Amino acid sequence: MQFTEMGLEDGKTMVLLPGTACTWQINFARVIDELAQRYHLVCVNYDGFEGDPSICFTSVLEVYEKIEDYLIERHNGHVDGAYGSSLGGSFAALLVQRGRVHVDHAFIGSSDLDQGSPIVARIMTMIVGPMLSGAAKSEKKRQKLVDKLAKALYADEDSDEMRSFLEEFSRSFANMHPKTISREFYSDYVTPLADGIHRDGTTIHVIHALRMDPKGEYKRRYLRHFREPDLMPFDMQHEEWLFGSTWTDTVLAAIDEKMGVSA
To answer: How far, in Å, CA of 214 to CA of 161, rounded?
Structure first.
């Protein structure tokens, strides 16, 4: 595990938890400087995402416990905020659910919070895992993955910014253990998240990307898993604010407002 702290020494603490198959350096690359000017950042890279291909991801719960232990040891078990992008939203939710670390504001970043049985998880992993990790083997496979992700996640927002992000994302797989992505994907799918999660003194904010949820499926999950979440709807695609300049300032300002921070 890697923990990198930066930003304002006396600023409010914000933990950054990256998404599936991603490092914080890639996930938050376009906004890290802005965030560092506002907060004291704790940037997390999970096991298997440290640039050492000999290290493999273990499981969501094992990795989560290391995050929890670090925040208890280094931050006395209390942080002002935690932003979980996509998969990272599951880690942010677990922080609140387990309660060993108190989080004043937990942000769930466009997370699907999809869960299922081990059998379904194995089938999905057999499909998705090789598709993602295969991008490390050749330029042709990397471009094929970029095209598939662009179509699946950002069909109506095919921009140079988006493709640049996906290119960097897929290129990073070459520095990972070949089983890391599959293990992360499988473990996230089978790790249960409680319903009605609530903690006194904590507000759960959900960055609700409306364009990825035309049927309201994700919204129903948010309302099931969290008691009275603060839904923050934006007419954007999945985590588009992290690479699309159109939404960056708007979402940053909304986060600052919730955190009580002036830009």
So the answer is: 23
